[in-house]
Design a protein that fits this description.
There is one protein chain. This protein is about 40% helix and about 20% strand. The chain is an alpha/beta fold. The protein has a six-stranded mixed beta sheet, with helices on both faces. Strands 1-2-3-14 form a four-stranded antiparallel beta sheet. Strands 6-8 form a two-stranded antiparallel sheet. The two termini are about 45 Å apart. About 0% of the residues have low confidence.
């Protein structure tokens, strides 16, 4: 078309032809430039969308591995992934880059604006193009999962509505993990204080040395002599000592996928007694393993085959105040109790169980450090100073466990 116009101009003797030719050429070139720029913008938009998708997925996976990551760190990480994917294109300016959590959708949403410079239309009014980009990563079905919550049920949990707030947070995690269709999730509960109760119905079990004198056995158990109290094995040769008359919280709830049963057990928790964290850790381990005393768990080999996960959440609002004198826990040797806590945490993690620890309303730096060291990584440790922090910790744990898929 341009060639025909030039040919006509060559043979024309009209004085207005030059002016008309200039106008036509400008329009034709502007049209061609617009076509090139629009095609380029379309291609750039696709690249920007791919970069956003990749950055969001990568950042969310990192956050799932580090539940304690702050929102600022999360956004900075996503932006680094995004910039690396975009390869520093100087013709694109990014603004308002932000990731937000949408609780109703159970999704992370990344929004940003992009300004793309025109190449051929720069002399015109259309010197650049503004576009908005959004991508969404929805939390999907959890992996094959076994999880036990070892929760402090001591008397101090009655203050400042701590036990009430704990019940809300624990039930929220339960609902989240069991909400997906065909979810393969089992959840157990270990209320602990100075002791733990396995339930009166366990009397007669081969692994239990139930008392034969005094009142009827009600389920309360003590500790095997060291070092048997720091391992999860050899129960037939070295039985768990049953106790009569010891103060115990409610019974352990063996792992189950029945949401109503789990919530009922959480609601039934009551605060009373002193703190002995190793009791919660030891029985949390026993409740999630694949052998007696509780055998609802699968083997580590099967978990690996299913690409699954075993996890233990341990929460307390205070330091150890009791220690074992075997089989009871009537001593007050805090150094001994703390050392047993460390040994149990190490044993649980060595058994390929992911440990999340929560220090709830604790100001003592030594106790905080004890719990942080217990966690699988520092990112699996949570310092909850109030109800909002506590709920946030349980939400972070639940989201870190679930899968992630692009949904927009």
């Amino acid at each position: 078309m341009i060639e025909a116009v030039i040919k006509a101009f060559k043979h024309s003797r009209d004085g207005n032809v030059a002016m008309m030719f200039g106008l036509v050429i400008f329009v034709l070139l502007a049209g061609a430039g617009a076509a090139v720029d629009f095609q380029r913008v379309g291609s750039m938009k696709a690249d920007l969308q791919e970069s956003a998708d990749a950055a969001l997925i990568a950042a969310v996976r990192k956050k799932m591995a580090d539940p304690q990551m702050t929102d600022a760190e999360f956004n900075q990480l996503a932006r680094r992934f995004f910039d690396a994917n975009l390869e520093n294109d100087d013709s694109v300016t990014i603004s308002d880059f932000n990731i937000r959590w949408d609780a109703e959708k159970s999704a992370y949403i990344l929004d940003y604006n992009a300004n793309i410079k025109s190449l051929l239309m720069a002399p015109t009014e259309k010197g650049s193009f503004d576009i908005g980009i959004a991508t969404e990563a929805k939390l999907g079905k959890p992996p094959f999962l076994e999880i036990v919550m070892a929760l402090d049920n001591t008397g101090s949990m009655n203050s400042n509505q701590k036990l009430k707030n704990l019940k809300v947070a624990a039930k929220g995690l339960t609902e989240t993990l069991l909400s997906h269709v065909n979810a393969e999730v089992k959840i157990g509960l270990v209320p602990f204080a100075q002791y733990v109760s396995v339930g009166a119905d366990k009397e007669g079990a081969a692994w239990l040395d139930a008392p034969t004198q005094g009142n009827a056995f009600k389920g309360c158990v003590g500790s095997r002599a060291y070092p048997a109290n720091t391992i999860d094995s050899d129960y037939l040769n070295n039985q768990i000592p049953g106790l009569n008359g010891a103060p115990c919280p409610n019974d352990i709830l063996a792992m189950t996928d029945q949401e109503d049963d789990i919530k009922a057990a959480i609601d039934a928790m009551k605060g009373a007694g002193w703190t002995y964290i190793p009791a919660g850790l030891a029985w949390g381990w026993r409740a999630i393993s694949d052998g007696e005393p509780f055998d609802q768990g699968e083997s580590n080999a099967y978990i690996a085959q299913r690409n699954g996960m075993k996890a233990l959440i341990v929460l307390t609002d205070g330091k150890n105040t009791k220690s074992p004198d075997y089989p009871t826990h009537k001593n007050s040797n805090i150094i001994d109790a703390n050392q047993l806590t460390r040994e149990l945490c190490d044993g649980i993690k060595a058994d390929k169980i992911v440990v999340y620890s929560i220090a709830f309303d604790i100001t003592d730096p030594l106790v905080r450090q004890l719990l942080e060291d217990c966690a699988t990584t520092p990112g699996h440790y949570f310092k909850a100073e109030n109800a909002a922090d506590l709920n946030g910790a349980f939400v972070s744990i639940a989201t870190s466990i679930q899968g992630i898929v692009l949904s927009k």
